[in-house]
């Protein structure tokens, strides 16, 4: 039965190589790493469509200014909002719907292969600064902070709104998805995410803390035992892991009334850091930050996922 795309299914990363804990490249087949499985919504070819001074991302349908540094210098969060308001008042580049990007929009643009800047191969953008760019998304736990994304290496962190960072205007076309209250549906020992179709272990704190290589081995062991009646569990890639996050919640950063149990502080992804192959991407569950962890350290947990039932 063919799988039909979901509007909010996590997009693929662009990672196509695999690495051992020492950072050496290894054959991907059978590793279960991101570069092996390439899970998620595939990228169109070409991904970007240039319209003079702005660019359509055909994967997400967001429209970005071609110049990634129109202001020319860093701005505070409030100054960033004022800047895009002035763009709209002047119908800059022929549009009046510019805004600071949401965290989801800016994270959706980054590459997990390239660094400095962390943008997809062959992108058409100019004057990209390999540092932090503001999003319009505030941090719910700390009203003085907002989310930013590092376009040198793709980290997603939070900073004080009075700090000065780069501004990249976007016009977003956001798909509609299910409301947060109806998002997760418990199915015995598993939970289906209605937004993405992914099925997660309900008990999120059983596997860890452990090192990265042991995380893959633990998931393989689950499959050997037919855990929860399935043999296709895997370690999620960084985009799948991030898709769990609800930025309206904190400690953990999940939607209200979620059915998961034993949620721990941080989780390994199957995606290696392109900055340094001895590190892999990690999701921190207090607020939803995305950073990296040293693969050999027994610091993080594994949260297995499977594709779930296919939509018809």
Largest sheet: 4 strands, antiparallel
Strand element count: 18
Spatial ordering of strands, largest sheet:
3-4-5-9
Category from helices, strands and their pairing: alpha+beta
pLDDT averaged over residues:
93
How many DSSP H or I helices?
A: 5
What distance lies between the first and last C-alpha atoms, to the nearest angstrom?
A: 8 Å
Radius of gyration: 19 Å
Count of discrete domains: 2
Helix share bin: 10-25%
Content of β-strand: 15-25%
Are there runs of 5+ residues with pLDDT below 50, and where? 1-7, 176-180
Backbone shape: globular
Question: In sequence order, what are the helices and strands, one letter per element?
Answer: EEHEEEHHEEEEEEEEHHEEEEE
Any overview of this molecule?
With 312 residues, the chain is an alpha+beta fold. The protein folds into two domains: 48-171, Roll (Mannose-Binding Protein A, Chain A), CATH 3.10.100; 178-306. 14% of the residues lie in helices and 23% in strands. The protein has a four-stranded antiparallel beta sheet with strand order 3-4-5-9, with no helix packed on it. A four-stranded antiparallel beta sheet has the order 10-11-12-18, with no helix packed on it. A three-stranded antiparallel beta sheet has the order 6-7-8. The protein is globular, with a radius of gyration of 19 Å.
